[in-house]
Amino acid sequence: MGKAVLVNEKDNVVTAVSDLKKGEDAVYKVGSETRQIKTSEAIPFGHKTALTKIAKGSDIMKYGETIGRASKDIEPGQWVHTHNTDETYTPSR
Length: 93
Fold this sequence. Notes:
Elements: E1 2-5, E2 13-16, E3 25-30, E4 33-38, E5 48-50, E6 59-62, E7 65-69, E8 79-80
Parallel strand pairs: 1-3
Antiparallel strand pairs: 1-2, 2-5, 3-4, 5-8, 6-7
């Protein structure tokens, strides 16, 4: 089992704290509860995997904040990175 970190309960991604292989369970905590998501592709150390379906144009949430937008549908367990995020997204402040 690979480990992952959920930073904020509002997040729809977790961050891998080790390289995760395709089909491996990314295990993370929500409070005192342990949960897991099966990866559908390899997730490199320090990268994110989706916890839920993130529809094209929807916010990607980490730290309880929007960090980007999906440039295409992202399924649970998929790698979330530049290939499926809007590189032109700039958070409004």
